[in-house]
Amino acid sequence: ETPTAVLLHGAGNGTKDRLVPLLTDFRARGCRVLAFDFSGHGHSTGRLGELSLRRRFRQATSVIEARVPAASPLVLAGFSMSGQTLADLTGRFGDRVAALGLCAPAVYAAEAWDVPFGDGDGRFSEIIRRPESWRGAPALGALRGYRGRAVLAVPGTDEVIPPAVTEAVAEALAARSRLTRLDFPGAGHRLGDWFREHPADRARFADALLA
């Protein structure tokens, strides 16, 4: 069955639109492709402040179940906050997940799961700004149990994700997955923007994920 590449944008002002070039690359490599805007982003309805990690997971699950043929292997790629969402989806879809591409990924404390994002100064922000709050994140356990193909894309300067988080994700993936780490020395946190402007790096990521 033809695999389906599902691309998930990050938080803030992230949208599916910046991922179109990467979608095109996956399509050129024989994949079905799918991307969407989480509620409160881009062309979607809803309010961003009402979104939560749980709702992101539910929205991604609903879109995949509605749009992707049940027999199609999943190639999941996510940026920033969607690193957490990808980890959650591995638990939902299990062995159907053929490959995971994590781009400057974030993971979060369990207590942040149900909390609405709010306007930047509420409980969610308080939890994620607490030093070391991400240690023991359930997402790390999920990634540690993942046995498929994994690609970790790391920017040279990440102004959002602490290096210790990136290394913890790398260590978790190295436990059982077939892991490739790709470093992009000139890039910042917004790897979606970087890939859009650097076709060779974008192709390198797509090729690694489908290897």
TrEMBL record:
The UniProt record lists the keyword Hydrolase: yes
Serine aminopeptidase S33 domain ranges (all copies): 6-112
A Pfam short name: Hydrolase_4
Keywords tagged on the record: Hydrolase
GO molecular function, one term: hydrolase activity
Family annotation (SUPFAM superfamilies): alpha/beta-Hydrolases (SSF53474)
Stored InterPro entries: AB_hydrolase_fold, Hydrolase_4
Superkingdom: Bacteria
Keyword Hydrolase set for record: yes
The protein, known as: Alpha/beta hydrolase
